[in-house]
Amino acid sequence: MSNVVISTRVRLARNLKDYPFPCKLSQQGREQVIEKVRDAVKNGNSVLANDFSFIKMEELDPRQSVSLVEKRLVSPEFISDPEGRALLLSSDESLSIMINEEDHIRLQVITKGLTLDEAYDTADKLDTLLDENLDFAFDEKLGYLTQCPTNLGTGMRASVMLHLPALEKSRAVSRIAGNLSKLGLTIRGAHGEGTEPKGALYQLSNQVTLGISEKAAIENLKNITAQLVAQEEQARERLCRSMDVQDTIARSLGILKYARLISHDEALKLLSNVRLGIVSGQIADVKPETIDSLMTAVEPATLSVAAGKSLSPHERDVERAKLIQKTL
């Protein structure tokens, strides 16, 4: 399934019992919540506690903040108003805790491939670590209380990042999206709600959090993901028989290796084509994981952070081309 499923994410929303939701919280209250969550992690009786760095969002420059969004470590909403917000981030960036986003706590775990059970297990351990030192807002009937009613109950959103070039090309994704909504799931662009898919990357996630257990939601997502993977693999087999598609893949690799200027959207499109070529056996000397890493590294703000300075659009296109050439 790693040919289709790039990564897994499990996110939990939690709020502190004695504080209003962040939208109604004073600056002083926000600082208190930050300190309570930070102390809960720092003083926690777990090996996880020692691995976090603490970041006050207002101290980051805009390109650093946007890069965090590009890496899917924080939400676009989280960086829109950095005052009174903080981030706890593990050294390998697989664990992150947003403090004072829509809810007091948004903790998330990102793992490679289809690893829903492992990601949930880690998220559950992190949740337990926080629960030992914090008093969460919880109701016997409604479960965990959240600002948005759609997160009530488990407060959990689990998702998988999928590469679906064949289903996208056959225009099957929109039909599939309609069927998924009836099953309590949604499929969106890679950065979630309101984002357009680029590079044939899609995020499949659960929508229902009330009246269903975390394990049941995980199993449902796992089963639907397996069906989507099977459909994509069948569609790829048909698609890659075409000489036109094989030529597109070969040309994409050539452009990526030798171009001097590459825009963001063009890079994602070409990288998607090459990834298809790798997993279908047409390209043998590049690993899919290399392409997966490049798809994040070529993002505009992430390029600027790597360069250590602000880059103009033209400079980004130059640096993007250089990075891709060096990597490939």
Structure notes:
- The chain is of the alpha+beta class.
- The chain folds into two domains: 230 residues, Glutamine synthetase/guanido kinase, catalytic domain (Creatine Kinase, Chain A, domain 2); 85 residues, no CATH class.
- 46% of the residues lie in helices and 17% in strands.
- It is built from twelve helices and ten strands.
- The strands form two sheets. An eight-stranded antiparallel sheet has the order 2-3-4-5-1-8-10-9. It has a two-stranded antiparallel ribbon with strand order 6-7.
- Strand 6 and strand 7 form a beta hairpin.
- Helix 8 packs across helix 9, helix 9 packs antiparallel against helix 10 and helix 11 crosses helix 12.
- The radius of gyration is 21 Å and the shape is globular.
